[in-house]
């Protein structure tokens, strides 16, 4: 248990240093920076102009969602390809057909989804 | 009876961070903050998997959940953000839900605390360095059919998600009448042309009674 | 080492948090997040029981969790697509607004 914990000591130190750096930078800018006076009217986007109305953020395109969807597809593919790639060479001698055919059909089936999204022009950003 | 070194400090820290971030993910008002707390929960769970010496599952957890599912959730939050935040975030029947959750929690935790047979220690019988190779062997020998089935499920889900998310796409991809499309996005309409998600002019959301 | 029931209690608490969120919140995205948390708690139980079982070399729990992660990703993708579609019809992701059968 103790030896296992001490394995993670560098990770812990790394985390401490990164968190300390981030917090320290922010705290330094608060302490050393000049704090201006802020009121609600000063903080609105147009100080002497129109009163803003509605949500201030533009809505994203649905294309972002579709790209993320494709990312999920390839992510799962990689998760299952990685252990296959590790053992690929040892297994190849024993049962060739199942090793190559299994992974090829796995990738082929997943590729159908990609082709469908491509065909539906899910990644056509022009419109 | 129990020594101080018996208390698993690392596990307790990871569990505390994970649980607190899970509670935050379910209770904060700002949805983007909820999504970010959810990422922290997933990272904590990956750390728990590492602590259980399931390195590859922790790796997969980070890759799939932190990398992909969290991005998907955050994109959906940004896509469906709207102005009406005046509603209270919890529903009227929330007390009933809380009661059910507490009852489920009690019925799960109480047997765990009282049962003596679950206080066992880990089996020392696995070689963690060869784990990924063993997973690969299993995946190619014993779990080939589930692998193909998973590929089918994923493809079906992907096609379904593309169809559902892009349902009114032909109208939107139509090159000619784009100003007309943007004109009636503000009105309450169930016409497919008027509800294009990506028209940035549709800031005035419909006020429903 | 950490005894098994610590992990099980942790998973039970995580499951309860997810369940409470899924039952209490009004937003459809948060309900989906609650379901994801419950799935993750189940995964944690699988990994814990695998690690503490005498036949850990069989890797049964591990493989189950790998496939479960894949299914959960598919479920999240379809669920979020449905939420986007609901938003397109009702201009809201609040569940009490989605009370019409034909929209």
DSSP helix fraction of chain C: over 70%
Q: Helix/strand-derived class of chain C? A: mainly alpha
What spatial form of chain A do the alpha-carbon principal axes imply?
Answer: flat
Question: What is the residue-mean pLDDT of chain C, rounded to a whole number?
Answer: 87
The geometry of chain C reads as: elongated
Main sheet specs of chain A: none
In terms of quaternary structure, the protein is heterotrimer
Predict the CATH topology of chain C.
Helix Hairpins
- Could you say what the CATH architecture of chain C is? Orthogonal Bundle
- The CATH class assignment of chain C is Mainly Alpha
pLDDT < 50 runs, ≥5 residues of chain A: none
* Helical content band of chain A: over 70%
The helix/strand series of chain C, from N terminus to C terminus, equals HHH
Radius of gyration of chain C: 17 Å
Computed Rg of chain A:
27 Å
**Major beta-sheet overview of chain C:** none
Q: What is the count of distinct domains of chain C?
A: 1
Count up the helices of chain A: 5
Low-confidence stretches of chain C: none
From the N-terminal CA to the C-terminal CA of chain A, the straight-line distance is 59 Å
Please name the defining characteristics of this protein.
heterotrimer; A: 127 residues; mainly alpha; 72% helix; flat; C: 103 residues; Helix Hairpins; 3 helices; 0% strand; elongated
Could you give a quick summary of the protein structure above?
The complex is a heterotrimer of chains A (127), B (209) and C (103). Chain B is mainly alpha-helical.
Q: What do these coordinates show?
A:
Chain A has helices at 2-7, 9-32, 40-43, 62-94, 96-119. With 127 residues, chain A is an all-alpha fold. In chain A, 18% of the residues are buried. The mean pLDDT of chain A is 81. Chain B is an all-alpha fold. Chain B has a domain at 7-89: Four Helix Bundle (Hemerythrin (Met), subunit A) (Up-down Bundle), CATH 1.20.120. In chain B, helix 1 runs antiparallel to helix 2 (31-51) and helix 2 packs antiparallel against helix 3 (55-79). Chain B is globular and about 55 Å long. Chain B starts with 8 loop residues before the first helix and ends in a 26-residue tail after the last helix. In chain B, 33% of the residues are buried. Chain C has 103 residues and is mostly helical. Chain C has one domain (4-95): Helix Hairpins. Chain C contains three helices and no strands. Chain C is elongated and about 55 Å long. The model of chain C has no long low-confidence stretch (mean pLDDT 87). The chains are: A mainly alpha (127), B mainly alpha (209), C mainly alpha (103). At the A-C interface, helix 4 of A face helix 3 of C.
